[in-house]
Amino acid sequence: MLSVINYLPEGLLDKKAHELHKSLSGPTLIHLPGILPEPLFVSVLLHGNETTGWEAVRQYLSKTATLPRAMSLFIGNTSAAEKHKRVLEGQVDYNRVWFNHSSDEGQMMASILKQMKEKQVFASIDFHNNTGKNPHYACINRKEHDFFQLAHLFSRTVVYFIKPDTVQSMAFSKLCPAVTVECGLPEHKYGVQHAMNYIEKTMALDEFTNQPLKAEDFDLYHTMAIVKVPEEITISFDPMNCSDINFAHDVDKLNFTALRSGESLAKIDPDKTIFLQAVNEQGIDVAQRYFDYSNGEIKTRIPVMPSMLTTKEEIIRQDCLCYLMEKIEMETS
Questions:
Q1: pTM score
Q2: What is the pLDDT of residues 276-285, one digit of tens each?
């Protein structure tokens, strides 16, 4: 499935994400030379409708004649990008198969990791977008100085998580400093400029310094649980609807907002037994710790901060409703 080439195909940088299938046969790893040999690994379009990373790469490579260091560019799910979808029906999620996954896609990601280990990869950036309103932020999987430095080049808002553990950044964290960067909504042009500037700054690094950053340089959060809606539960984003759960049409405005206990998240059918799932890092459903379902509402039991709340039902079904976080102090190992 994977094509590996050492050049940019003619006209590739002229293509938008949904047009890449015209130039590429499928997932493609492109190794480009630079002045420093250790490559920056950049992955884009692991989700086909998250296009900011590709737009940023297009801009950077179009204006940079000589790369300051080598770049290895992985262009992921071009077939989903053609259809403007996160993932096509029947496909696996390209950002959930990077560790111990027996699928063809999992084997493909394993081969990429092997190649990048041999090339002594310098750092890894995995570009993503959100489907709900969120600030731009970086995610790390290890609390180490160089990971914080790489994240801080993008944003002072940093999220530490260890679940799900089959994502790209987790796999690359065993080889080099690695981040997932969330660039807001894909239609926002500012996200492309921000992402392009980040590539430029990271490519210009000679090395990571031993000088640690300070706690006041960050707003650091820890993902405590992933919230999912059971398949049998119907949902809508109209509080007057008659679905099992009725969220506000703008529920995503709560992302990165500190919610107090007792705050309402949704209206529910009082005649049904309705429970969300909230799975913690140990794989245990801890929804009862976070949510109260009395009086026809879903309310918070304890203070919490959501991220990646979305109003797109398709995304909720394919991935999750949101993540639950708490603010923590920076400690490095």
A1: 0.95
A2: 999 999 999 9
